[in-house]
């Protein structure tokens, strides 16, 4: 059954959704879900080519769209993007803070700049977007969704940077829900599990690790981008009018299993790489 069959088109007809990092992956899945229920959709990202491609996909769903190149680490660029969106699509009613960066790296091998880069994209980027859109959200009594991750509340090896950033996002969401609730603005987070075909899964798991990961997901499959989109649309809808400061976990139950299998997979892959490197250097010496 399609998402458009669940929501009468007039519910989202006058909504303007802004998805940061909306050019690909989960965020594009979210943007497409809003487009499918009739919202106007704006996206931003760093790569024009990706944005152009995503824009055509959104337009194919019948959405009026606006794509703008903006790095969420750059507050002025985001403020400019929000101003442009207001002119082209009307004031922002729904903001999705999705832009994120990640890679696997042990804390002792990570440079301070590497750690800061992920904090800047994920946590600062989320603050920058909400702050830049604030005046419009206040006017529309809007809704904010921050994309979090399981790393926010469970340690995952080689994920100290992402864990710190996402835990910060969880706390920020609650603070903003407290401060902006009286203005009619709702703020929630969604915690996706591993999602099929995304950059996140590509970066965090090779095929062998993916197989192990599946064993830790009670529903025994990866999620789909549109399944996170369905959560986003629900939280924006009148059906969620009394939900703020909440976290919705959409991960096939993965959080119930902890991170041990993931950690084991990372360590095994690391050991295999070290063994391969030793063998190659021995072969060269012979
Ligand atoms: N392991 C260790 N350090 C890494 C790394 C890795 N795999 N990838 C990047 N870094 C370090 C760099 O070495 C650099 O640190 P240094 O200056 O001390 O050498 C620092 O991180 C910044 O890297 P840089 O490539 O300059 O940053 P960027 O702004 O161009 O890219 C990233 C940001 C690193 C997050 C990049 O991976 C990215 O663009 N990701 C976006 C997509 C993504 O991650 N999607 C998944 C989301 S879940």
Can you describe what's shown?
By secondary structure, the chain is an alpha/beta fold. It has a single domain, classed as NAD(P)-binding Rossmann-like Domain (Rossmann fold, 3-Layer(aba) Sandwich), CATH 3.40.50.720. 51% of the residues lie in helices and 13% in strands. The chain is built from 10 helices and 7 strands. The chain has helices at 9-12, 25-36, 48-60, 75-89, 112-140, 160-180, 199-204, 207-215, 225-236, 260-285, and strands at residues 16-20, 40-45, 65-69, 94-97, 143-147, 186-192, 247-250. It has a 7-stranded parallel sheet with strand order 3-2-1-4-5-6-7, sandwiched between helices. Helix 6 links the parallel strand 5 and strand 6 (186-192). The longest helix is centred in the middle third of the chain and has 29 residues, at 112-140. The chain is globular and about 70 Å long. It starts with 8 loop residues before the first helix and ends with a helix. The mean pLDDT is 95. The structure holds coenzyme A.
- The coarse overall form would be globular
CA gyration radius, whole angstroms: 20 Å
Bound molecules: coenzyme A
State the order of secondary-structure elements, H for helix, E for strand. Answer: HEHEHEHEHEHEHHHEH
The CATH architecture category equals 3-Layer(aba) Sandwich
Separation, N- and C-terminal Cα atoms: 62 Å
Number of domains: 1
Report the total helices: 10
Strand content: 5-15%
Largest sheet: 7 strands, parallel
Q: Estimate percent helicity.
A: 40-55%
CATH superfamily: NAD(P)-binding Rossmann-like Domain
Quaternary structure type:
single chain
Which strand order spans the largest sheet, edge to edge or round the barrel? Answer: 3-2-1-4-5-6-7
Which topology does CATH recognise?
Answer: Rossmann fold
Count of strand segments: 7
